[in-house]
Structure prediction request, 562 residues.
Amino acid sequence: MDTCISCLIVVILSLLSTFANAEFHYHEFIVQETSVTRLCRTKNIITVNGQFPGPTLTVRNGDTLFVTVVNRARYNVTIHWHGVRLMRTPWADGPEYVTQCPIRPGGFYTYRFTIENQEGTLWWHAHSKWLRATVYGALVILPKQGSNFPFSLPQKDFPVILGEWWNRDIIAVQRQAQFTGAAPNNSDAYTINGQPGDLYRCSTQGTVKYSVNPGESVLLRVINAALNQQLFFSVANHMLTVVGIDATYNKPFTTNVIMVGPGQTTNVILTANQSPGRYYMAARAYATVRNGQFDNTTTTAILEYKNLKSGANSRPLLPRLPAFNDTATATAFANRLRGTPNSNRVPNQIDENLFFTVGLGLVNCTRGPRCQGPNNTRFAASVNNISFVIPRRTSLLQAYYQKTPGIYTLDFPRVPPVQFDYTGNVSRGLWQPRFGTKLYKLKFGSNVQIVLQDTAIFSTEDHPIHLHGYHFWVVGQGFGNFNSQTDTANFNLNDPPVRNTIDVPVGGWAVIRFVADNPGVWLLHCHIDSHLSWGLAMAFIVENGIGEKQTMEPPPPDLPQC
Prediction:
């Protein structure tokens, strides 16, 4: 008996030690319609708590969050915690009909999860329809109490959330694209923290201003929340020291411009070491589709030195941003990213060696109002020529947990069904994908490598690929077709960057590795929402391991039903 009591005391002390510095955070997200004015027009948009962008959540590594989402809007909604590992709690992940049925109007659901071994900047956003155009916010993860940043503590800390704005209702934009089969209408503006900035009509009054004192160091948490566009970002006359990406630290380096793909975050430190004045920070498109249409405008905010004696109302200096098709600059930035020693335990032995083609496709159709894609087709997209069909009867996770038949199959191909010159002239017979809800099963603890290969079907393009529930090592990137004989030798297995969203280079490839240590159903998809709607996605089932720490938790009692 004494031995048992001693064991119990040890367990209790261990638990107290674990949670001594952790906190519990309780939030309520009211999803609702809110009237806002942008670009000379007033309209209703969907927001959280009437805010656009939504509230910034600031927590520490190890904290637990309880976020109750109450849906008072007219659309179904879910919330995704982008980049959070959500260990053993896939029920909190959020993608509609993948890990949960949507929260219907009038309904509610509490997302419960713990931040485990992550620090830096992530974000949250709607993951149903295209509501994330306005339903998003920052998730700031500070070090544990008593721990420090691996760099000098900045005097100021600002989120910089890049977004896209449409004058039309975003659900109407989505429905039109889905009806016609054509590409969606371009956005009317880009935004920084919800504001277009001085270069747009009727926007100067709302332009975001960041006030700094001369000599201060400022941490800018740059988040690309844009629906469909990669973005270059720069601050006039100021250098940016990159210190973190996707809630992981990297080896710091200095640059005058960064490229951020949809879904990605980049932490940069800026020192206010220029002549006191007003300087624009600005973002505009990095667009890679051949002959593709895109929003070619520029959003701005103002970095403003305090106590200006003169020029307080002068026009700020504008940074020189790269050309929209400057792949060389985007590539040079990506190639400078290196992980830190603490983030690198890259698996060398690979259990699952997968090769996924990612790209667009075209579906033949009869000329008419529903056939307005190129040359009488409808746009589609696929991974390994499978255009992903999301179920509607129940979610994939519920079907897996409850062993519900007929919702999905487990025959997703590990390699392309047909090998071809992926980035060359592709035969028209390969342009039309097959449709299906096909998943791929992974054993718990398996070491996984995925080659992500862009294709030239319709056009090569830079695709930001996001893996839910995981972060991964980016061990290689390049252009053309991946060659396992020559490219493998150049993999970076010493200090690769760690990400949750990787921009697959236009007309090229990226190779990622991860350990399948988080059981559940996890979506892998392009974070350009039009591509996701067209089917550029697939999902993994990661099986349970042994014991409680390797087993998925049961569903919470308030999980929405279909």
The longest helix spans residues 2-19. The helical segments are 2-19, 170-180, 327-335, 396-402, 529-534.
